[in-house]
Amino acid sequence: MIQILQITEIILAFLVIGVVLIQNKNVSLNLSSMSGGMGAITKRWPEKILQNATIILGWLFVLNSLLLFVI
Question: pLDDT digit string (tens) for 15-55?
Fold first, then answer.
């Protein structure tokens, strides 16, 4: 059981790293551009899928880590 959780932990770690690295790098933290009349910024389907995949994989990684800690 522990060996399966350890292998799952490694796979989830690589998946989280991969999904984070694929995400768009053209995000600016310039506050002056946010105050203009840009309107609401919505994520289109590829960015939304990557964001949701990151959240889900992150939660799975944390849960798997907690299971390994408890066992």
Answer: 999 999 998 776 555 555 555 555 556 668 888 999 999 99
Q: 């066992």: which residue's tokens? A: 71
Tokens coding 15: 């998946």
User: What residues have CB less than 8 Å from 8, skipping those under 6 apart?
Assistant: 64
Token pair recorded at residue 56: 């889900």
Three-class DSSP category at 52: helix
Rounded (10°) CA dihedral 56, 57, 62, 64: 110
Half-sphere exposure of 19 (CA within 13 A, CB side): 19
Cβ atoms 58, 16 nearer than 8 A:
yes
Q: Which residue is associated with the tokens 């309107």?
A: 39
Q: Which residue has the tokens 């991969």?
A: 18
